Each structure stands twice: as structure tokens, then as C-alpha cells.
Amino acid sequence: MARRDPLPPLNPTRAFEAAGRLLSISKAADELSVTPAAVSRQVRALEDFLQTPLFERVRGGLALTSAGARYLSDLIPLFATLRAATEAVRSGSQSGNVLRIRSPATFAVRWLIPRLAGFHRLNQGIDVQLTTSSVPLNFEREDIDAGIQLGSGDWPGMNTQRLIPNELVPVVAPTHALKKPKQLERQTLLHSLARADDWDLWLKAAGLSRINAQRGMRYETSLLAYQAAIEGHGVAIAQKALVEKDLAERTLVIPFGPVLDRGAHTYYFAWPSGKRQTAALRAFREWLATVIRD
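Predicted structure:
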């Protein structure tokens, strides 16, 4: 019996990446210049290949399953790298106009990627190569020009630019009838391993220190924890700026306060100090500054 190729079919994978990133079959079809029916067929073909569902229908549109969210978080930086490498070859430039950036997966998917099209419109000669990881930035050992990192922003050998407020709020699917913070005693808490202390910090700020902040379900990234909350698995603790779209579309709601502002402990854009900045890096920093002001 022939061994099955472990690589997925490219066109179905591309259709899923677009539909998952946009959470819309019709928007993915517009981006790929095909019909919505074609995107749906391609997504089903990938689900058949993987033998697992990647989407489910929810009120107001599509939602990723846990497996779909995990797969998407891995695929998005791969496709970004593929696009950047392809454009670099087509333009005959392998370095000067390529900007290599690394970001935590949740921040990349939830904040940066939805805004990157604006940068590309203004800077068509610069290709952004985006990869994801939660390990600390190390410009001496990594072949990257800049990165995004969570913390105090005061890191040796780096210049930093603050990006978003780090406001922690509980979020839950609107089908959960939660009205009072004390109801969390009977709820499943959803945790991100990358942000293990968030529930403990929020519960103390809410005066609920008697609730066991360690119980519940744990996920590798906040991206997966948010998706679990959308699917009704429990209550996640979220960075408000990273769930704005879900709150606007009411796939998630904030059932009660308080809003805990972590102040200077937030996401920063960082680049090596003492090193000459390329024109591409300067353009990206200037674009980020306009996005943050808006």
C-alpha cells in the first residue's frame, strides 16, 4: 500500500487559510478570485484529507474549531513567508526590500495581520516576512530585523515602541448567562500557557481571590483559549484589544468588569539598538505609529 503524502493539497490549504483568517467564505472567495462554492469545496477537501472538521457554523457566520484554530495559527506565518519569498524572487531582491518580523501567534493573527494590507498598499516595494514564536527575541542569534514581544519594554540592546493597551477582561460566548463575577465559581476557566498568571491577576483585582485561579482548561496560546470561549467551553481571560472584532460581532461578550489595565506590561515592537536601520524598517515603524494613533 502506497504511503500517504503527509503534505496537504495546496489549493485547499490556501482556501482554508484565507477563510480562517477572514472568518468568511465570501471574503475568502473575493481575495482568491473564485466563487464561494469553490472555497467551500476546497475547505471540505482539506477536512477530508485531515479527517477532522476545521469550521463550524455559529450565529453570525463561521467559527474555527479548536483543531482549525490551531492549524490556522501554524499556517498563517507559513503562507506569509511563502508570499514574501516568492515576491523577493520575482522582484529580483533577496534582502534589501524584505522585512523579517517575528511575533507571538495570537498577536499576529488577532492584531497585526488584519492591518498589514494597509502597510502593503502604502509600501508596495517592501515585502514583510512574518514568523511566529513566543520565545524571547534575540537579534544576535536570529535572522530577523524586528519583532513583537510582551513585557515591560525595557530590554537590553533593544529599542522599543509600545503598541496596544494591555487591558484584561473576562470573555464568554453570549449563550452563557453570566451577570455577576461570583458566578465564575461554577464556570470552567480557560487559560493560555503563554499568559499563565492572567486569571490570578484579574481575580485579585475583582476581589475574588478565594476563587481557585488555577482550575480549568489550558491551551498553548491565547488564540486557542479565545476560540474555546467562542465555542462555549468556558470563560477566557482576554486582552481586550485582541478580541475587538469578536466583541463587535458578539461572538464573545464581556459579562462584567473590572477592566484590569496592566500599564507598561504590554506588547512592544522591538528592534536592535546600535544598528543602522534599513529603509524598510523605518517605513514599518512609521506606519505602526500611524496605526497606533488611529
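Summary: The longest strand covers residues 266-272.
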